[in-house]
Specification:
With about 450 residues, the chain is α+β, with helices and mostly antiparallel strands. Helix content is about 45%, strand content about 15%. The chain is built from 18 helices and 15 strands. The strands form 5 sheets. The protein has a 4-stranded antiparallel beta sheet. Helix 10 crosses helix 11, helix 13 packs across helix 16 and helix 13 crosses helix 18. The chain is globular, with a radius of gyration of 24 Å. About 35% of the residues are buried.
Length: about 450
């Protein structure tokens, strides 16, 4: 029997599981973020959360008077959860750089700071980085800088005391904004697990304890935690992507028992792998299917691909392993590291590679040409239900839909097309009909579908 939440009564279990989901979906919780009810909920269950999250996942919960910070263990690189602007655009490298430099400047500041003063401090640091800089005379630089400031303000590190950041962006010579600084939140946000100056590769941020655990019991314990983390963090874990020892842990009955009692969600185990199904909608950072044209187009496209794979039997190609995908992504990120001069003296060799997956699996290959044709057919059938901004650009809509399907591990991108992964079959019977539009004056900005998802 699982020892997870063993001190929680059956009457209080749902409330405890809600606290778990809140913390897992929001690793930083403050008085105001993500809402004012979150921190009291975490405080109530802090001791039990601290014990269970460490035992099951190897995570560490750090609480202060005004914050709760979950320190995760990072097993793999993940590009599916970027920081986002208030308009829901993913941060680019410039915004990430300004975010980190802003945190550094706030750590050296007092209790209040003017936006122009903060920009000057960040600009001085940015000027020492090749290709970055922060010129407040350039509006794109001001926009990127204020996006970083707004991200921190949303989480409570900064609180607007006077003025307007939007006015400063539009006219920095005549407008100003004054912020109160919450230093406790500032220090809770940035808690690196490694000294960044000492790393030659972004892979140095990943956890490699599993490969170096001493003793049979410690190795098994580390593998067990890693298997649970993978199921929790990934939309699906395919056995083909896991090493032999991890496959044993993924098939262990205790994994389902522990994760279901911890989160209150259902874990499904199929022949190809394991997935945690978020029926609550409060644990996943990415809902699928959901509203919005890209998501609806991705759902319709997934049904088309599944039907094509079933009926036409396209050729199968070997899929790149998870380790190979991680290595390719790491190489792209590492290309931007300033490893020269003093950095070259400080950096250390990275850790050894993990145990590789033991098998290569082939999946049905769907060509780019077929995908473009399928998207044009969907546009002809459902185009009037798509938002106006998407109707004239099916290629852009196809890219966004495929990016979404890839992030959900329904397909994997390869040269010349995609490989259809097993979870895609879940949506093979999906149907949709266009709802009639109500007469209204404002422009249409979203889809109008009745969708029936096959299970």
């Amino acid at each position: 029997m699982s020892k997870v939440a063993e001190n929680v009564s059956s009457l209080e279990l749902a409330d405890y599981q809600r606290a778990v989901r809140m913390l897992l979906s929001n690793p930083l919780i403050t008085d105001a973020y993500p809402n004012r009810a979150a921190l009291p909920l975490i405080r109530r269950w802090a001791d039990q959360l601290r014990a269970d999250l460490h035992e099951v996942l190897g995570y560490r919960l750090v609480t202060t008077a005004n914050t709760a910070r979950l320190l995760r263990v990072q097993d793999e690189l993940d590009v599916t959860r970027p920081a986002r602007t208030k308009t829901d655009r993913p941060f680019d490298r410039r915004r990430y750089a300004y975010l980190v430099l802003t945190l550094a400047a706030l750590g050296r500041s007092g209790t209040q700071i003017a936006l122009s003063e903060l920009a000057e401090a960040v600009g001085a640091d940015a000027a020492r980085i090749d290709g970055l800089g922060l010129d407040t005379e350039r509006k794109p630089d001001r926009d990127a800088f204020v996006d970083a400031v707004a991200w921190l303000a949303e989480r409570g590190a900064l609180a607007l005391a006077d003025g307007s950041a939007a006015d400063w962006v539009n006219n920095p010579d005549r407008a100003e904004a004054l912020y109160d600084i919450d230093r406790e939140v500032v220090f809770a946000i940035y808690r690196p697990s490694r000294v960044l100056q000492h790393m030659r590769s972004v892979t140095g941020l990943l956890d490699f304890d599993y490969g170096f655990a001493q003793g049979r019991h410690r190795v098994r314990e580390a593998a067990s935690r890693r298997a649970r983390r993978l199921v929790l963090e990934r939309p699906v874990v395919y056995y083909a992507d896991a090493s032999e020892s991890l496959r044993g842990q993924l098939r262990h009955p205790g994994l389902i028992e522990d994760l279901e009692r911890l989160t209150g969600q259902t874990v499904e185990r199929r022949a190809e792998g394991v997935a945690l199904i978020d029926a609550s909608g409060r644990l996943s950072d990415l809902r699928f299917p959901s509203g919005g044209t890209p998501s609806q187009a991705a759902l319709l496209l997934s049904a088309r691909i599944a039907a094509y794979v079933t009926n036409s039997k396209p050729p199968a190609l070997p899929a790149p392993t998870a380790a190979e995908r991680d290595m390719a992504l790491a190489a792209r990120i590492d290309a931007g590291l300033p490893v020269k001069g003093v950095m070259d003296q400080l950096t250390e060799a990275g850790p050894a590679e993990r145990e590789a997956a033991a098998e290569t699996v082939a999946y049905p290959f769907v060509t780019d040409a077929w995908l473009r044709t399928a998207m044009k057919q969907l546009m002809n059938t459902y185009g009037m239900a798509f938002a106006v901004a998407w109707r004239g650009d099916p290629d852009r809509l196809l890219r966004e839909a495929l990016n979404l399907l890839a992030s959900l591990r329904l397909v994997v991108r390869v040269e010349g097309g995609v490989l259809a992964l097993p979870l895609l079959a879940r949506y093979r019977g999906t149907t949709a009909e266009v709802k009639p539009r109500a007469r209204r004056a404002e422009p249409q900005t979203d889809t109008l579908f009745n969708v029936k998802e096959a299970q």
